[in-house]
Amino acid sequence: MSGSPIALLTGMATLQTNPVVQSVIGGAIEVHRALGPGLLEAAYQRCLAREFDLRGLQFRTEVPLPVVYKGADVNCGYRLDFVVEENLIVEIKAVEHLLPIHDAQVITYLRLSGATQALLINFNVPRLVDGLKSFLGKETCARSDP
User: Fold this and answer.
1) 140: enclosing H helix or E strand
2) What pLDDT was estimated at residue 15?
3) Does residue 91 contact residue 120 with C-beta atoms inside 8 Å?
């Protein structure tokens, strides 16, 4: 993936075999099975937090994401939905379709935070696998290049 600062992985088959990532995806699938599509993002966020607790995952919600511009911290009010085990961003949506702007948002969050990986999960789909995207941060991509 040389030349590309961020790698996008889609579909369950291409996701890394990271046990934290697997547990997060398993939790999201459990929430989706129980609730189905059609609710507001806040409902999925609260249920996913409960699922993370049950799975023993360490996480923070609504984590402030500072934007630094020319040495100054510019408070823009950006918040990460979840940071799991201190290096995985989980951004959730409940939208009709994921758009390129959603990808751009997650890529920017990865770059600004320095996290190693991010999951973008859209719960408003019949099958959760169709609403799941995984992104690797720049440092992770560099380590995986031959």
Assistant:
1) helix 138-144
2) 52
3) yes
- Joined tokens for residue 58: 């360490």
Using 50 as the pLDDT threshold, list the residues of the chain that sit under it. Answer: 1-7, 10-14, 141-146
For residue 25, the model assigns a pLDDT of 96
Q: Closest by alpha carbon to 32, among 21, 17, 47?
A: 47
pTM of the full predicted structure? 0.84
Cβ neighbour number for residue 41 with a 10 Å cutoff: 15
Q: How is the chain split into domains, by residue range?
A: 7-144
Which residue, among 116, 119, 88, has the nearest Cα to 103 in the 3D structure? 119
Q: How far apart are the first and last CA of the chain?
A: 9
What ranges in 10-132 are assigned the alpha helix state H? 19-35, 41-54, 100-113
CA distance 57 to 70: 36
- pLDDT attached to residue 77: 83
